[in-house]
Amino acid sequence: MVITGGSSGIGLAAAAALARGGDEVVLLGRNPERLARAVDVVREAGGRTPAAYRADFAVLGEVRDVGVRLAEEYGRIHVLVNNAGQLTSVRRPTVDGFDPTMQTNHLAGFLLTHLLLEPLRAAATEGTPARVVTTGSAAEVWGTLDVARPGRRQLSRWLAYGASKQANLLFTIEAARRWAPYGIVPTCFFPGLIRSGFGRRSPVFSLAGTLPLVFRSAEEGAETLVWLAKDPAGLVPGGYFAWQRPFGATARSTDARRAQALWDSSLAAVGLVESGQPGR
């Protein structure tokens, strides 16, 4: 199981839970120190040292490099968890010219999933599909996503975050439609409001310690992720879940035409052709 954003928060909590259950996990993270600590946590939980790869999702070149490396080193990937995410300033675009929140939360995962499509296909059998689990958010309700230009600069970080979460759902829906013949089941989930380092500069998230009944622990937030990665009941192509149950979303985030348009514009943005190989 490959888990992006696996060095902290719900990604690390899920990795530890899966390792504790006997699964082999592969961690992806941006910060080398946090990644090294995450390796120790997962080793202690599961009894073996997980593989770990550093990649900054704000740099698509690093995503391409790690995607190619993973595809070469793992002939089969049974579960890919697109969990890497951030809530950051809109002042400066990434080196690739995109809104940093949209690139990290959607475009980078979109690119990585395509680069790992063959190992996912190889892992899928008639009785056991491969799975792609994406971390979404109820923030999709206020997103201002332009499906023709997903990487465009946003007016605020919260609008950018909402747009990226719309993109997560639309990606899941279109991936389910396109990859059903390959035996790949994409799903998306909302973990709830989590007490973690995510969004630590936001006044809203700074309330986490004072509102324990509203904000959940990383371990609690990871429960639905682990369920979607393992349980047969989670095999609902294009499904959106919270608390291990179906969860509602806005029409903008579930519209099939918007999903197709976003897919095409995202391919162009990250330099892919439909086969999943870099464009020439």
Low-confidence runs (pLDDT<50, min 5 residues)?
199-213, 276-280
CATH architecture: 3-Layer(aba) Sandwich
Chain-averaged pLDDT: 91
Task: Give me the side-by-side strand order of the main sheet.
Answer: 3-2-1-4-5-6-7-8
Name of the CATH class = Alpha Beta
Determine the structural class based on helices, strands and strand pairing. alpha/beta
Distance between the termini: 30 Å
Secondary structure layout plus pairing:
Layout: E1 2-4, H1 9-20, E2 26-29, H2 32-46, E3 51-54, H3 60-73, E4 79-82, H4 100-115, H5 117-123, E5 130-135, H6 157-179, E6 184-189, H7 218-230, E7 239-242, E8 245-246, H8 256-270
Parallel strand pairs: 1-2, 1-4, 2-3, 4-5, 5-6, 6-7
Antiparallel strand pairs: 7-8
Question: Your description of this structure?
Answer:
The structure is a single chain. The chain is of the alpha/beta class. The chain has a single domain, classed as Rossmann fold, CATH 3.40.50. The chain is 41% helix and 12% strand. The chain contains eight helices and eight strands; from the N terminus they run E-H-E-H-E-H-E-H-H-E-H-E-H-E-E-H. It has an eight-stranded mixed beta sheet, sandwiched between helices. Helix 1 packs parallel to helix 2 and helix 4 packs across helix 8. The chain is globular, with a radius of gyration of 17 Å. The C terminus is likely disordered.
